[in-house]
Every structure is written in C-alpha cells, then in structure tokens.
Amino acid sequence: MRIEQDFEVPATPPEVYELLVNLERVGPCIPGGEVGRREDDGWHPTSIAVRLGPMRMNYRGKVRIESRDDAARRAVLAADLREQRGQGTATAKMTMAVAASGTGALVESVTDVRLTGRAGQMGRGVVDDVAVRLVAEMAACIAARFAPVEGAGEPGGAGAGPPERAKPISGLRLMARVLWERLKRAFRRRGGETHA
After folding, report:
1. HSE of 155 in the Cβ direction (CA atoms, 13 Å)?
2. 3-state secondary structure 92-117
3. Strands 89-101 and 55-69
4. What string of pLDDT tens digits covers the 196 residues of the chain?
C-alpha cells in the first residue's frame, strides 16, 4: 500500500532535513516508538506499539537510512519489523524530501508499506486513516521541536536537547478520530454540510 502525506515545519529546510536523517533524534517523535543507537551495519534497533481498540500490536525490528542525497535534501528510510506476539510483519520504505515553503520547510513523504498478520487483515481505509494520524502526530512533535524556547526568543533548533517523547496514540482516541473523518467524508459525498 502507498501512503502520501506532506507536512510543514517552522524551521529552515537544512535544519529539518538534518533532524529527519538523524534517526536517534527523530525517534522520540514516533508515537509509541523507540529507536536505538546505530549499529555497525547502519541499522538502528526499533520498537513500536500500536493500539486499535482492544488490540495492541508490539513490533520489534530495525530501521535505517537506506539512501540520502544531502544536496537535494532527499532520503529514503527503510523499516523491517516483526510482531512480538503473532506472525505479523511490517516492512516499509519512506521517501522524504524537504523543500522551502513560506516561513519554513515542507516535508513531502511517500511510504510504501507491506503488512501481514492482524494489521494486514484490517481494511485498507482503516490502515490508511491510522497511518495518516501517526504521521500527523509525528509532524506536530517535529514542529514543536523547532518552536521558540520560552524566555529565550529563539527556536530550539536541531542542536538543542532531545524532543519530548511523543505519547503513544490511544486506540479509543484514534478510532474516534478515524470515525469522525469518515462521517465527514460521507456527508460531503451526499452534499450535506458538517461543522467541525
């Protein structure tokens, strides 16, 4: 499955790109995720927990920057994960490109994901909606990373302390958002109006 999503960050493109390719620093912004130190082969040990209603899926595996073009500010992230309980797997390749946009940077991401096991049996629409929410939470965390430091009047910048770890997305909150978005789309298709 292919997922495309763009988001803006209030920082310069070089700052944003440098943060995105530093997996240990961007790791805390992945909801429910942890990224360990880079190993000799270039991979980082990784774990991520995803909750959907009563189901909690814990994955362990590895991620790495597979390729990067610093001049073009473009990189490809590869992930290979396995569900700890069960036979599910998740493999992904995310292409990230950072460009200037208004007062900051625009991150364009295209992710190709393959899921097996319980996650793979869910409907495509549900998985898409969950992925969109995960990226939105991560984008908000990255944007906050560059927000001005209170009392200092300057942005945090890529060299400041580690960002606050993103909280895992709760299943109920996530499913409520997904259902709300689907209801809004259904009303729009029927010509109705919704007030968010």
Report:
1. 16
2. EEEEEEEEEECCEEEEEEEEEEEECC
3. unpaired
4. 888 888 888 899 999 999 999 999 988 888 888 999 999 999 999 999 887 656 788 999 999 999 999 999 999 999 999 998 878 898 999 999 999 998 899 999 998 888 888 777 776 666 677 777 777 888 888 888 887 655 444 444 444 444 455 555 544 455 455 555 656 666 666 665 545 4
